[in-house]
Design goal:
By secondary structure, the chain is an alpha+beta fold. The protein is built from 2 helices and 7 strands, in the order βββααββββ. The longest helix is centred in the middle third of the chain and has 18 residues.
Length: 147
């Protein structure tokens, strides 16, 4: 499921195919990062959970992205068009990296997904125990200490 590019103590990096979210090149390949090779099994669990987000979870993420764009303001050169449905926001943003947010394989599945929007700001979301717990620009605040 994951194609590992680097596996060394301190940071491991790989890539995987996303079932739903697009990348910055309008493709489906996202990066994944973990703190150590010991967390590779956790990474597989996170990718599986990410690729199996429910329709309602994806809709929730999309609605919250729209709320962030409206609330936080947007680049003066970008005008958010009227959207027919919440998923249409994904035409204006993309995701690049999934960070495993677990300390060991006994932890509940937790990850942070990082991306960006045409409006010029980073955007991300945090999932813990199969629940979306945050969508916005401060997603790294949800990373476990030391990660």
């Amino acid at each position: 499921m994951i194609n590992w590019l680097h596996q060394e103590e301190g940071f491991c990096e790989g890539s995987f195919k996303s079932n739903f979210f697009r990348d910055d090149e309008n493709g489906d390949v996202l990066s994944i990062g973990v703190q150590s090779p010991d967390l590779i099994e956790c990474a597989e669990k996170c990718v599986d959970a990410f690729n199996n987000l429910t329709e309602s979870e994806i809709s929730e993420i999309c609605r919250e992205i729209i709320n962030c764009v409206k609330k936080d303001g947007i680049d003066e050169e970008f005008e958010l068009p009227e959207l027919e449905n919440a998923h249409d926001i994904l035409n204006y943003c993309w995701f690049t990296t999934l960070y495993v947010n677990m300390s060991n394989k006994e932890d509940e599945i937790a990850y942070v997904v990082e991306g960006e929007g045409d409006w010029g700001d980073a955007i991300g979301f945090v999932v813990k125990n199969n629940k979306v717990i945050y969508v916005g620009t401060d997603y790294f605040g949800y990373m476990k200490d030391g990660e």
